[in-house]
Amino acid sequence: MFRETLELYIKRIMEFLIYTKNYFIRNNPLMMLANSVVVGIKDILTVKKKLKMAQYRLNYHRHQLNKMEQLIAENSQHSFLKGAHLDQKR
Q1: Which residues of 51-70 are buried (b: 16+ CB within 10 A; e: fewer)?
Q2: Half-sphere exposure of 32 (CA within 13 A, CB side)
């Protein structure tokens, strides 16, 4: 009785270890952790470059918007669209 129970427990432990080994082979959590750390470090090191790119895009779009507003104001016959009133109407 005791021997059979012990054999059953050992068999269950062995099956669990086999499942665990196969899980580690498939998913490798240590490699996933290492990859996430590397990605985090790359993000930290490239933050300044990304910020400069975002500022450049923002300035570019702001410049395009100002050009568009100026063209609208120049080509419009309405006097309320000229000058500082355009910002108030927006």
Answers
A1: eeeeeeeeeeeeeeeeeeee
A2: 6
What is each CA distance from 85 to 24, 59, 69, in whole angstroms?
67, 22, 11
Using alpha carbons, list the distances in angstroms from residue 87 to 14, 66, 67, 77, 82: 75, 10, 13, 17, 10
pLDDT, position 69:
85
**Are the C-beta atoms of 83 and 73 separated by less than 8 Å?**
yes
How many whole angstroms from its chain centre is CA 20? 31
C-alpha closest to that of 73 among 86, 61, 62, 87: 86
**pTM attached to this predicted model:** 0.47
50: its two tokens = 């990304």
State pLDDT tens for residues 65-74.
Answer: 999 988 887 7
